[in-house]
């Protein structure tokens, strides 16, 4: 039990450091229309899923229907005017049915971990991409590829 708590504490402490070490500064949501909305990570945006929406910071003005979201990702610059090599971005694409496509994996696999430190899913990536399934039940989960770590709240 102490080991699981210690692992969770280390993850919580290292998650923000991991983002800083990779110089990622923004969370960007890109809609299928091509519109992009970037959120500064220094503001600690909270990503929440409901049955049909992706919600940033629990605000109605930053709520996006999952069916309209192409993907969301983390990057070093504001992506409202995308510059540079888009293939270098860490992207999370909601596929529906509690499934996510991860692009830009730096590690060889993507893992979904619960707050107790249990690995719920581990999927090997193929050319930097993988699909993972989230548990259907409500809760807080951690998605990681070893270099990028994201907290996901399933509502």
Structure characterization notes:
By secondary structure, the chain is mostly beta strands. The chain has one domain. It has one helix and 13 strands, in the order αβββββββββββββ. The model is unreliable at 3-21 (pLDDT under 50).
Total of helices? 1
* Main sheet makeup: 7 strands, mixed
Q: What does the radius of gyration come to? A: 15 Å
Structural class: mainly beta
- Percent strand equals 35-45%
Notable features of this structure?
155 residues; mainly beta; seven-stranded mixed beta sheet; six-stranded antiparallel beta sheet; 1 helix; 45% strand; globular; disordered N terminus
Draw up the topology in text.
Blueprint: H1 2-21, E1 26-31, E2 36-40, E3 47-49, E4 53-56, E5 63-65, E6 69-75, E7 90-96, E8 99-103, E9 109-114, E10 119-124, E11 129-133, E12 139-144, E13 149-154
Parallel strand pairs: 3-13
Antiparallel strand pairs: 1-2, 1-6, 3-4, 4-5, 6-7, 7-8, 8-11, 9-10, 9-12, 12-13
